[in-house]
Amino acid sequence: MILPLRVRDLTFVAGGRALITPLSLEIAAGPSTVILGANGAGKSVLMRLMHGLLAPSSGTVVWSGDNARRRQAMVFQRPVLLRRSVLANVTYALKLARVPRTDREGLALEALDSVGLAALANRPARVLSGGEQQRLALARAWALHPEVLFLDEPTASLDPTATREIERVIQAFDAAGTKIIMATHNLGQARRLGDEVLFLHQGRLVERAPVEQFFSRPASTEAAAFIKGELPWV
Amino acid sequence: MGLIFRLLLALSLAGPASAQPRFITVASTTSTEQSGLFKHLLPIFERKTGIQVRVVALGTGQALDMGRRGDADVVFVHAKPLEEKFLSEGFGVKRQDVMYNDFVLIGPKADPAKVGYAKDALEAFRKIRAAQSPFVSRGDRSGTHFAELEIWKAAGIDIAKDKGSWYRDTGQGMGPALNTAAGMNAYILADRGTWLSFKNRAELAILVEGDKRLFNQYGIMLVNPAKHPSVKREFGQAFIDWVVSPEGQNTIASYKINGEQLFFPNAE
Amino acid sequence: MEALSQALRLVTTGDATLAGIVLLSLAVSLSAVALATLLGLPLGAALAVGRFPGRRALVVLLNALMGLPPVVVGLLVYLLLSRAGPLGELGLLFTPPAMVVAQTILVLPIIAALCRQAVEDAWAEYEEQLRSLGASRFSAALTLVWDTRFSLVTAVLAGLGRASAEVGAVMIVGGNIDGVTRVMTTTIALETSKGDLPLALALGILLIALVIALNAAAAYVKGAAQRRHG
């Protein structure tokens, strides 16, 4: 078990600006966590700090258990796929995870099946539609059976139909026991998929609450303004 | 791809299982190469001895430098003073005459400098200088260039000081220099061999010939193995011996273009 | 026009000497490009994803080396391989391998620099995802070289163009020896200097036609592969 994740006094400074001001939190297994905030609030930066893609300027990000690196995965807003077949994109990830060659194809097909892409396994990944590509990215992450799945605005570039498909997949992963940590600025999506909300404003963790409570009785003025739609930018 | 490379490597080192690969490198001049003499001469030697002769054609000065560096086994050039210097420096083993031909003064048929009325090469050169007619020099330390400079000197002209924009110092081989002269309708000193096989004559023709100052002697030397142990002494000497032998000399004499003989053998 | 018909005549009469010259030209240039690709792709990829002091200066230097004058490279290789030089013992001067060495030196910067650009652009796009999946810089570089392979084909063709077109390097290190190191470009130079301009032009047309044929073949292969893999 690599959860709980403990973040202590985390800061991140870039280009002379503090994108994350001292922030501490603990993320436990179980409920899916949605990180909300206006554009520029620091959602993406915080996710990357937690996942290890960025190094903190100060403070610590500590996972429990060992091998935390391999027990997490991340899906980005724009799916980054290699110039090869759908199946090969998944087996590539398995190869990096040192899965024995003989097991790779089977596990890959399983993962593709779980997102409904098994029929497209031999197509070039790049000819897929936006929604299909993002499903492939999810399948790739899922194939590694991660304990924690980070999602950075996974449906921001997709149309409503594709968005619903992706949300279904995420819900399935959640039901299967994977810890979901997702950043989004789509309030409806947050309500549909999240169990708890972390609300960021200007690099600070301003509020943390179960999802329904956050939306019906926000404790902070910034959260209230955000929900009312008055805080599109920071 | 790797196969092609290995094939190339094998080809370049190919030869029967003798101590040295069976070829020699001869540094010679552009005038002998471009006259076509080697295409006529070499196959006969190669068939007879099985020794491949690889000719690298440069100007006389460069060819001798190649010998000094040890990159050639034999040098076959045409500037006796330069050859004797080479010998005295210890880079060559015995110099032998092989053949001669002559230089000719080429120029525009219209002959603006009235060179056709000169009684000898010296006067021709003086007329060109007086008329400041365009003159192309090889400027590349070749035998021909060397001969040209000797004629200016003998004519009493200090060409290094006296040259104006009419004197075009191109630094090129005989063929390119002739091309340049044809393009500029200029005068140029050329060896008869290259002129006879040169195809881009435009308005040019032979204007002065026969002066004994235009005599052009070719000599051959083995590069000294004492200075460069890599020199193929046995094969190189075999080539030299053949070239000065009656058979070699006759083959040289038999090379003709349009019925005209280019080189006149005169080995002792 | 006369040159065009002469070119056709050259090809159809199947002259053995000409065939030898053409084959040697292809062998030398293709070998050089193959070697340069083998060395240049890893070099370019490493430079693209690596991070070390002086990296930017190295990139600038590599780009500048794309403009190496062939005659200068020929001179340098000549001095190296001459009997009077450090590698004289190898006896490589005035042989086809010497020509391959010179052309490899000319082509290597082109392939490496273009590879570096292609991989660096791809790295900017792929870096986060590849690192998230746990790829090391080294394995990411290999993956990106394969992923940018279609752009890299163009880089290789640029190298091939340079190699088959140049005359300065092969003339100096090869010596344009009849039957041994004479290639198409040196033959064209020789025929020009002998004043046989129509023949030189005909050979030139032949050379260009060959290079076009090679490019067309590469485009075909690339197109077929792209349809398979997207």
State the share of residues found in helices of chain B, binned by percent. Answer: 40-55%
Give the name of the CATH superfamily of chain C. Answer: MetI-like
Distance between the termini of chain C: 43 Å
Count of the separate structural domains of chain C: 1
CA-CA gap between termini of chain B: 52 Å
Number of helices of chain C: 10
Number of helices in the DSSP assignment of chain B: 12
CATH overall fold name of chain C? MetI-like fold
CATH architecture of the largest domain in chain B: 3-Layer(aba) Sandwich
Mean pLDDT of chain B: 89
Backbone structural class of chain B: alpha/beta
Percent of residues in β-strands of chain C? under 5%
Number of strands of chain B: 12
Rg on CA atoms of chain B, Å: 20 Å
CATH architecture classification of chain C: Orthogonal Bundle
Q: Estimate percent helicity of chain C.
A: over 70%
CATH topology of the largest domain in chain B: D-Maltodextrin-Binding Protein, domain 2
Oligomeric state as shown: heterotrimer
Description:
The complex is a heterotrimer of chains A (234), B (268) and C (230). Chain A has eight helices and nine strands. Chain A is α/β, with parallel strands linked by helices and 234 residues long. The longest helix of chain A has 16 residues, at 160-175. The mean pLDDT of chain A is 91. Chain B has two domains: 21-101 and 217-265, Periplasmic binding protein-like II (D-Maltodextrin-Binding Protein, domain 2, 3-Layer(aba) Sandwich); 102-214, D-Maltodextrin-Binding Protein, domain 2, CATH 3.40.190.10. Helices cover 42% and strands 25% of the residues of chain B. Chain B is built from twelve helices and twelve strands. Chain B has helices spanning 2-12, 30-34, 37-49, 60-69, 80-88, 121-131, 143-154, 159-162, 174-184, 192-197, 233-244, 246-253, and strands spanning 23-29, 52-58, 74-77, 92-108, 135-137, 167-169, 187-191, 204-208, 215-223, 256-257, 260-261, 264-265. The radius of gyration of chain B is 20 Å and the shape is globular. Chain C has a single domain, classed as Orthogonal Bundle (MetI-like fold). Chain C has helices spanning 2-13, 16-49, 55-65, 70-81, 96-132, 137-147, 149-165, 168-174, 184-193, 197-229. The longest helix of chain C is centred in the middle third of the chain and has 37 residues, at 96-132. The chains are: A alpha/beta (234), B alpha/beta (268), C mainly alpha (230). The interface between A and C is medium-sized, with 23 and 19 residues.
